[in-house]
Design a protein that fits this description.
263 residues, alpha+beta, 8-stranded mixed sheet, 5-stranded antiparallel sheet, 5 helices, globular
């Protein structure tokens, strides 16, 4: 692990990214951030960015695979102590909306959130989010936001499901590849915007925006539950983050990994 810098470089935000730790290579930026938290209290909004993650992680132990130097792989430390533990999915909503807005800024086209926190352009995955919260009593004491976005990578492992990158979808007008540091500044600005909405407890705004941004929202599609398939229509998400699907006359609710999209 090679620590390159620990300097304030973001000029477009109030606090997200003001403290930036850049790493050449690390197992996982989320693991690095959690280790940092175990030994100190870094400033809120501290960003840990790596050129290479050799053991990147997604939700529920899934692996996040990325080509070194070509993508956004970072983690952000936050202290959402005004957020009660039973409302922690609102943090997920805020960050997913921020990443969605960022991707739309780059692509100049509509992007969706595949529940709970994958970022999709049409039927292709361009990014993912892993949020790890520390809870004390009924409050969240700290959060580590892990964000991976495929930017300049053009070849992916065959085993990955339907990946795509920003450059595959839209080439930059003024260069052969996207400038990662500039994109990270814009991403931090988007995250700060939505995180401030969360800090002001604008739950209804976040819930409505997240619901309307859902991939395949209010469309009839096939889903897989266990070994069986069924048709249904996504109708929203509960306050604790369960996906609501209407199938026939039934309203079904699913936690993560309890239902699969058929794409």
């Amino acid at each position: 692990m090679n620590l390159k810098a620990n300097i304030a470089t973001m000029t477009t935000t109030l606090f997200i990214g003001k403290n930036l730790i850049e790493l050449d290579s690390v197992d996982s930026t989320n693991s690095f951030a959690r280790q940092l938290l175990s030994n100190s209290r870094p400033a809120e909004g501290t960003v840990i960015m790596a050129k290479e993650q050799f053991a990147g992680r997604g939700q529920m132990g899934n692996k996040w695979s990325t080509e070194a130097g070509k993508n956004i792989t970072l983690s952000i430390v936050l202290y959402p102590d005004q957020l009660e533990a039973d409302k922690q999915f609102f943090l997920n909503m805020a960050i997913a909306l921020a990443v969605k807005d960022f991707c739309e800024f780059v692509l100049l086209d509509e992007v969706k959130i595949k529940w709970p926190n994958d970022i999709y352009y049409h039927d292709k995955k361009i990014g993912g989010i892993l949020i790890e919260n520390s809870i004390s009593g009924s409050k969240i004491t700290s959060s580590v936001l892990g964000i991976g976005i495929n930017v300049n990578q053009e070849e992916f492992d065959e085993g990955l499901p339907n990946p795509a990158s920003l450059i595959q979808i839209k080439k930059p007008a003024d260069a052969s590849t996207y400038d990662i540091p500039k994109l990270v500044e814009e991403l931090c600005s988007c995250i700060e915007k939505y995180y401030l909405q969360l800090r002001q407890l604008h739950y209804n705004f976040l819930d409505k925006a997240y619901t309307e941004a859902l991939y395949r929202y209010q469309q009839t599609h096939e889903f897989k539950r266990g070994e069986s398939t069924f048709k249904g229509e996504i109708n929203g998400v509960t306050k604790d983050g369960k996906l609501v699907i209407h199938s026939g006359t039934k309203e079904l609710r699913f936690g993560f990994k309890e239902v699969e999209y058929i794409i």
